[in-house]
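Task: sequence in, structure out. Protein: Flagellar motor switch protein FliM.
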Amino acid sequence: MSRRGGSAGPTTYDFRRPIKLSREHVRTLQIAFETFSRSCGTLLTTRLRTVSSVSLVSIEQLNYDEYVASLSNPTVIAVVSIDPLPGTVLLEIATSAVMTSIDHMLGGPGGAQPERPLTEVEMPLLRGLLERMLGELRYGFETLVDIQPKLREIEYNAQFLRAHQPGDAVVIASFEMKIGTEECVSSICLPFNTILPVLEKQETIEPTPAERLVRETSLRKLTAGLSAAPIDVAVRFQPIRMRTDDIVDLRPGDVVPLGHPTSMPLEVTVNETVFAHAVPGNQGARLACLVVPSPKEEERR
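Result:
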């Protein structure tokens, strides 16, 4: 998934990002982040006592400097460790959504809020809310890896935050967050080198009985569909080489020696691929061929 529109034509190859997430990896992350977003929406509704929702918008791979350039300033960025995995995760939420959340926690009606740094009273409220949200992040990823998200610090300007090197690859999950009447797009930034081994390990895990049943059913349907698909089959002699002027001078009635030994069977082909051998014949008034063992099989006998 990507929030950037696709376009036809060649795709630019980025040598700084030689390895990309596969479709299966994106699907696995999508399931984890959708679980997180659903439970996080329920948490916000309960904690803030106002109708709230969080929904996954996109998952994309960027360089860290590209991600930082896309963020607003100021914004609220939670710097998070995810032991036992290495690296730093960033949880970014718009300042307006944070101020609205705090207003609801203090019994206010929400609505338009001033853009200013948080006070000493408001900061513990925000830290408590973020820690609860990180608990939902752990729940979303528990089928992939058991992580212990821990809030380290809160920053307001991504330009001054050196969580990663500018050219480091990161995975960005974007969410549409609604808190009462306030709407914003928040994001989670995962280090690519941290999450990739987890996704690759997931591919080697034995499927559950339900997953195995789905795969077997899909395989049967695919096999049945291919079995009923019509294809063109040709029976041919061995090709010969001719000079261009001989081909140009051909006239009706001319005889062209094929050079195919009468003792050698013909080739049965599909899309230039030989899959059997046969001898010519007829069935009633129609031409036909009889499939016979290949010359190599005859030699082995």
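Residues 234-248+257-300 form one domain.
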